[in-house]
Amino acid sequence: TPKPNVRNVMITSALPYVNNVPHLGNLIGSLLSTDVFARYCRLRNYNTLCICGTDEYGTATETKALEEKCTSRKICDKYYDLHKKIKTN
What we know:
- The protein is mainly alpha-helical.
- It is 52% helix and 11% strand.
- It has a single domain (8-88), classed as Rossmann fold (3-Layer(aba) Sandwich).
- A two-stranded parallel ribbon has the order 1-2.
- The longest helix has 20 residues, at 24-43.
- The relative contact order is 0.22.
């Protein structure tokens, strides 16, 4: 929530694809710079909101679903849970 008389910062990042096991490219390409900047803002006592999502649409997701013989939705749910588990440990 924005606060008066305080520097308010909202940070977003590129959306990582959720169609496979996370790898270093996911971290470097979309999350690392966002996390570093958010930490910097918090150290400066800025009211900081850092949000991210996932990219669950596209050919790569559809192809993975065909490979695993399931729906795109099931692929996204499966790998979203895996990404979340890795990023919170």
